[in-house]
Structure formats: C-alpha cells, structure tokens
Amino acid sequence: MAKLAEEMNPEGSQYQILLSCPFGISPSQVSVDFSKSHDRVPHPDPDLEDSISQVWEKRAQGNSSLFNGQKFRYGSYSLDGDGGSGGTNEVQHVCLRLGLTDYRTFVGTNLSSLWEKFLVTSQDDSIRCRHTSSPLGNGAVIETSDKKIIVLRRSNNVGEFPGHYVFPGGHPEPTAVGIDYHQLENNVQTGELLNKKVTQEMFDSIICEVVEETGIPASSLSPPLFIGISRRELNVRPAMFFFVKCSHHSDDIPRLYSSAEDGFESTQLHTVSLDELKMMTSRMPGCHHGGYALYELMLQRLKNIKETSVSAKEDDT
C-alpha cells in the first residue's frame, strides 16, 4: 500500500518512503511510462542552470575517470489497488514514470552544494523535484538461506557516501535496452515495446548489480520482488528496492565476494541479523536507510498475515 512519507517517518528523518509495496510485486505488476515528458525541466534562473556545467567541470578536473553516462530519471508513479473487493487496498499494479538524464546533470543538481535551490515549493513531489536530475537508483535486500542480510561497506574511493553501509545495488541502465537518447516514436506499438523493455530492465539490472558486487551467481538468486521506493532527504536522491532470496548459507558469501567483478566499489561484505542491520542504518545513506524501512514493512506484513491465519484456524476449532 502506498503511504505518504510524513505518515511513516518522524520529522527530520534521513529518508522518505515514496511508495511501499509490502507484499512484494513481480514484473507483471509493474509497467513503465518512458517519455521525454518526464525529463528534468531546466531551471528558470540562468545562473543556477549555468552552475551545472561549472560543478561538473570542477569535479572532472579532479577525477579523470569520471564518465557522463545516461541514467533513467525518476519522475513519479501511479498505482492501482484491488478496488476494495477484498478490503485490503494493496497495490496490484505500479506504473513508473521515467525520463532520461545523465551523470553530469546529477552531479550539477542533486550533488551540488546548491541542490536546495533547484527545488520548488510544492506538495506535489514531481513538481518539487522538476529541476533536479534525480536518477533512479536501485538496491537489493538479500536474505541468505539462514536468514542473514547482505550489507556492503562502500570504498573510500566512490563518489557518494564513501565508507558507508549499503545494500548491493546501482542503477538500471538505459544503454542496456538500447537507449542513448529519446527517439521520436512513430507508432504506439513501438512505444509500448520500449516501455516493456525498460520495465524488464528494472528487474534485470538489480540481479546484475548483485552478481557484480557480491559474486553470488544469478542461479542462486530468486526472482526479485519490488518492495518500494525511498528517497534520502539530503539532495533528494531516489532509489527503488527489491527483496531477493539467496540459496547460499551466509558462511558461503565471503568466498563468493572475494571474486566479485565490482568488488573494488566496496571494502567489506557483512552478513548480519535483523537486529544488527537495524544498528547499521545510522551509517547508511538515507535512501538505503529507507530500503531497510521498506524491508521492515514487508516483514511486518508477513507477520500480520501469519497471525491472522493462526487466529482463523483457532476460530475454526
């Protein structure tokens, strides 16, 4: 069920829950509306807009490996519930409204020291963040066969939150589905096909990120379930989160991690209990702290279902 952020978090929290799907939803329940209409709107202040190039150039001078890659931009979402026949009001289908942005604009808006100046005063989230790049990140809450959760400690060489704890993840990639720029859609069928490809990339990309960052083979991972979207308060960075089960015992994970393709992005891998994970959240970026909150909501929902089932059986007897 979708909930407003202020309903779920105390004032001053590090994150906002934009969307919660505590049952976990599959690719068949998610669609994407990929359109230029969801792209970033340039800010009317020309000096602020010019600062994007200035921030990027300054960052690039200090890092020769910086690459201006394309990213999907998070615009907003729409959803459908069950219509009330069962009275659960649970999400049955989510449509993600995505545009296109790039890393340069992300660095120059969201990661800029001027990031708050790009925001618009509005209760409508899509209006409030209309001038920010807001690339959509992703993360996976991975549960091992012995119910431990996998957490990485970020390298000191990464651009965002070095040394912090995070769930494995990254970004869905436009280039993975052949998108370098917006193309004029000649017909509805072409647009629908592209939207389906982008939707699948949302799910395929998180498995790729997990494999690359942890070394766990894809064959050992369950199909990911989408559990929601969180956004850190600092520079309004959005990320979608998934729940994934791993068939390996937690004792096996360090060995697999030692051969991870993207192991350089992190310095340590931890497999932790739920209580240990909760203690780590103070050292997580806000959007990943929000990912933990989404996982907690999922666990609470499962607990409620179990308790209801037990109660119903007792009533029958």
Automatic annotation (TrEMBL):
GO molecular function, one term: hydrolase activity
Nudix hydrolase domain boundaries: 133-300
Entry keyword Phosphoprotein: no
Transmembrane regions: none
Names of required cofactors: Mg(2+)
Keywords: Hydrolase, Magnesium, Metal-binding
Alphabetical list of PANTHER family matching this protein: URIDINE DIPHOSPHATE GLUCOSE PYROPHOSPHATASE, URIDINE DIPHOSPHATE GLUCOSE PYROPHOSPHATASE NUDT22
Protein name according to UniProt: Nudix hydrolase 9 isoform X2
Organism from which the protein derives: Camelina sativa
Source taxonomy: Eukaryota, Viridiplantae, Streptophyta, Embryophyta, Tracheophyta
